[in-house]
User: Which sequence fits this backbone?
């Protein structure tokens, strides 16, 4: 048991989601000596790719380094789903710089594909009858300072011209209709977004992939991939596998064995806490319509109520240097109480972490390098994205894609001397935190 008044008896450092759907090795088989497509990583990306390939009659085998499937971000995330708002969400005008670089047509195509990816997730949940508590609650992004309200308004106007997300502004004086806090200066609402149970979604896609005929091996780490004639040989801790095609969907868990990708991804820990159960009326009083909430800070927070309406799940970057689950849970508790002071006496039952993969241009990346197909770098928005990109990778390999993905083949930038070890994070993270505080003092 952990001492300290904010911790409930039996506090756990595993995701609250795992109480329903703990990652398992169920269905794991020994790796084959040969497969048509070898897929590295068993998150949404790898499994969606396997599902789509199997549906098209192409042999697909998923390789997972951990003893269980889905031990990465796919069973640890906040379960917030939406589209478009996070595209090119870089700071200091990075979003528009990217638009300039890629051109307005490409950017528009990406936005439309982002909308399509959301529709795809809803369709997948229905088609495969995935019981993942999908709840189309809509979303509210709170402006941390007044000028962010104007920025959000510009973003809403732009998005409404291209996609059908029904993006609307909610001024501060009406904010309590959506969230009982005075911390924000109004915000942006979008209707086409919601919440789901990430681990149940993961289980649903895994089951669907297996039903369709895909196979998978847990406890099988890929240690290298080499060209072998027209195909590849995949070196694993359980022996070599010959494959016609190889797919890498390792995202925030990419190791040195995939050095080219590791140099392009910045793995950042994100943390979440779950409060103890409260009466439903108390939770509903805080977020009356159950919307998913995020804010506009550089070091952002994301939160919402659990699908049983009895808890608050609060996530954010509680530490950039890595810290104990107890310390990061304390930090998140303090952050949560800044939004909802009435939760000061409420204890925490779970506090956990996982790696999010950031990219240097704040865009997700999809394509092929040295013959290896990949999709990675969702900058904290991978539930919809990786399910979509995995499916698109499957279609591309099976040649069942209607048209190339708008994300396919854009340059995947790195930085000189960066090898995948983000030594600069504590410094940059603290600088961002300081800038957030400064913005509020000056507001
Ligand atoms: C705390 C947290 C909160 C988040 N909240 C949200 C949210 O609310 N909404 C949202 O859209 N997104 C959110 N995300 C992001 C989202 O969860 C991820 O983008 C998404 O799950 C990535 O899926 P994936 O399949 O690409 O990778 P993962 O699910 O991370 O899977 C990658 C897998 O690859 C395996 N692997 C790595 N190397 C090897 C190897 N050499 N051999 C074999 N296997 C290997 C890993 O073990 C891992 O299982 C959050 C992420 C975190 C961590």
Assistant:
């Amino acid at each position: 048991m952990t001492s300290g008044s904010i911790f409930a008896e039996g506090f756990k450092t595993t995701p609250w989601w795992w109480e329903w759907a703990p990652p398992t090795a169920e269905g794991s088989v020994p790796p084959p000596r040969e497969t048509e497509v070898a897929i590295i990583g068993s998150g949404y990306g790898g499994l969606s790719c396997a599902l789509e390939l199997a549906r098209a009659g192409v042999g697909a085998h998923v390789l997972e380094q951990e003893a269980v499937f889905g031990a990465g971000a796919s069973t640890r995330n906040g379960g917030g789903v939406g589209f478009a708002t996070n595209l090119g969400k870089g700071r200091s005008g990075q979003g528009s710089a990217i638009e300039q670089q890629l051109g307005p047509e490409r950017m528009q195509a990406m936005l439309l594909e982002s909308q399509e990816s959301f529709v795809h997730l809803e369709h997948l949940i229905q088609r495969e009858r995935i019981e993942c508590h999908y709840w189309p609650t809509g979303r509210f992004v709170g402006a941390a300072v007044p000028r962010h309200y104007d920025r959000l308004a510009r973003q809403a106007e732009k998005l409404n011209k291209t996609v059908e997300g029904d993006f609307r502004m909610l001024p501060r004086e009406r904010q309590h209709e959506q969230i009982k806090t005075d911390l924000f200066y109004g915000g942006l609402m979008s209707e086409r977004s919601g919440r789901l149970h990430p681990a149940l979604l993961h289980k649903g896609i895994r089951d669907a992939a297996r039903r369709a005929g895909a196979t998978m091996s847990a406890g099988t780490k890929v240690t290298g991939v080499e060209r072998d004639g027209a195909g590849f040989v995949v070196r694993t801790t359980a022996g070599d596998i010959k494959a016609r095609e190889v797919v890498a969907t390792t995202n925030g868990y990419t190791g040195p064995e995939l050095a080219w990708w590791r140099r392009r991804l910045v793995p950042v820990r994100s943390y979440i806490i779950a409060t103890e159960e409260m009466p439903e009326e108390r939770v509903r009083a805080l977020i009356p319509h159950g919307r998913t909430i995020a804010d506009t800070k550089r070091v952002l927070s994301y939160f919402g109520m659990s699908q049983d309406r009895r808890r608050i799940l609060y996530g954010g970057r509680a530490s950039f240097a890595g810290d104990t689950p107890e310390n990061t849970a304390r930090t998140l508790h303090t952050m949560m109480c800044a939004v909802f002071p009435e939760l000061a006496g409420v204890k925490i039952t779970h506090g956990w972490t996982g790696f999010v993969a950031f990219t240097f241009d704040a865009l997700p990346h999809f394509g092929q390098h040295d013959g290896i197909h990949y999709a990675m770098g969702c900058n904290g928005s991978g539930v919809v994205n990786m399910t979509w990109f995995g499916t698109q990778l499957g279609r591309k390999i099976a040649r069942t894609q209607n048209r190339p993905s708008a994300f396919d083949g854009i340059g995947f930038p790195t930085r000189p001397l960066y090898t995948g070890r983000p030594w600069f994070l504590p410094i940059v993270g603290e600088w961002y935190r300081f800038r957030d505080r400064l913005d509020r003092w000056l507001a």
Remarks:
- The longest helix spans residues 104-127.
- The chain has a mean pLDDT of 94.
- The chain has one domain: 7-442.
